[in-house]
Amino acid sequence: MALAIALQFGLPGARAQSAVVSAPAASAPAATDTTLPTVTVTGEAQGPDAPAARRRSDSALGLDLPVRETPQSISVITRSQLDDFHLSNVNAALANATGINVEKVETDRTYYTARGFDITNFQLDGVGLPMTFGLQNGDLDTAMFDRIDVIHGAAGLLTATGNPSATVNFVRKRPTADFQASVGLTAGSWNDVRLDADVSTPLTADGRVRGRVVVAGEDTDSYLDRYHLRKGVAYGVMEADIGPSTLLTAGFSRQNNRPTGVMWGALPLNYTDGSRTNYARSTSTSPDWTYWNTDTSIGFLTLNHQFDNGWTAQVQATHKDDQQRGRMVYVYGTPDKSTGDGLAIWPSTYTDVASENLVDARAQGAFELFGRQHQLIVGAMAARAGTREQSYNGDTLGAALPEDLATWDGSLTIPSFDSDGGSSRIVDKQRSVYLAAHWSLRDDLTLITGLNHTEAESTGESYGASSVRKNSRLSPHVGAMWDLTPRVSAYASHTALFTPQSQQDAQRQRLAPATGTSDELGLKSDWLDKRLMATAAVFRSRQQNLASYAGVDSQGNSIYEGADYRSQGVELELVGEVLPGWSVNAGYTQLAIHDEAGEAARRFTPRQRLQFNTTWQVAQLPGLKLGAQLNWRSAIHSDDVDAGEPSLLLVDLMARYQLSSQWSVSAQVNNLTDRKYLTSLYWTQSYYAAPRNYSVSLNWTY
Question: Which segments of 534-687 does DSSP mark as H helices, in order?
Fold first, then answer.
């Protein structure tokens, strides 16, 4: 489902200057003997330790299928993984997912890539608004999520815009039939303090109405000079059985981020003589009076009904408000190696207000044809989003940085922000219809066919340039699964790509949509009574006219040009329980990316990546659980400046001890070997990642 909001930030020298967002859908309940009959919503309850090959997901096609039977590579980040390794934000979670690269370009802005391209499709509960630039502003918390599904490759059927990277689906927690509660307190390096609470309970004696509340708060300093973050998360959801076969779900979430000393842009990578800079890991380009506040509120209402013939229908309405207010300083230029001179400042304030409304309606169920039973989903989506943005530049724009960045203490007088930096007023509309069928051709052969027709329209202007566009496209999807043996299946899929783009060329005109194809061949197998699942995939994708950063114009606006790319590679994954008490989640990706001239492209993306996550429940000491995360990537290189990073191996360790049936204590160490490395080479600037750090947690559950 797709509606993109591009909020042009006018940041000079960056690959993309935009903030964009995503959105939501549903799951299922249970009841006591005194309730009306249970409403069975399509899907299967999945505990945190569900066997790997029995996990189900409707993230790829909207059809409730086991991951094992979906003709696409799908990774699942479970709640157990999030809890075991204290993955309290989305950046930390996705950094440990197969094939995903987290490009932390600034302290409060992040891109994600997979299979060589930006991830621009994000969902909540299977319904979402893709982010045209793939940006995540702020520190998105994971407290409200039950799991995160990553659909590798193009999943354009439900998202309307095909993208050959991946689609990330955040599945929110739902109320439980019985009372349960948990509280966790975490303390860590740099005065980090975090509190989590999660309570779920029936709200009526007969259990027909159930509710759940999740809250989290964190306050932390940083290894970066002058950076401080406070954030708060609140999520509430209620389910009600309003009839024998009807379920009503209503929910609301809000997250507030209050960072100060934020980095807008990052550190220069080269000196004027061409040699690499090498600052201290704590070096920041920001004074302490800067901030970048984000407030995100999402409300949703979902109605599910199950018909007597087994078909289900769902209607979901979502409203999202997203506000950003910032006062920041961008440091630009190339410093002299001996003096540090050559850097200038660009102070600015920004106000961005976005509001989105979306309605998605779908029906799915089984039907019989030629003596065999098949599945069908049909749906439609309509969305509208409006955004308003205003910026003002400080009166010291272009002034020299007071001293060498390596020794600067952040002292800088707050300027007067009285120069109009431009504004943006955009309205985006989108309408999509889609259908997909899961055909059971034989007991050992299934076929999936699907179509999506999308119309996207935008009006308004951004920083003096027209944002008017109108595009439509019919995109097909086809996939097949063939059971070679009871344990091994082969699959293939093909998806057409169509992505309307908001980026502007040198004449300040919007680029035409990017188009292309994405193909995948693979094998899936399960072992040890479905407790262990392996996937091997070969993929190839082509994109034409994809927006490629081409620099800035005389007004400091980013400009883009359409470029053609092709990506191909191999992806391997092993997930599940190898031995009783020993779980693994391992993934390896190898790829090649070339431009239309056949030259290596997007070199900031590692050509090889290995993620390995394992936990061990110690049999000799039943209360003890040990774990390790290993993340390795090959060397990377900037596409725009002479800068590279060697291969990198990061190691994280954890230990948890169950003190009693309700109390547990855990400890975590990240970056065990204390490697110094840059967070990303996606832009022409970067900053250093965190050194070795620690945390301990005390948890209570009921």
Answer: none
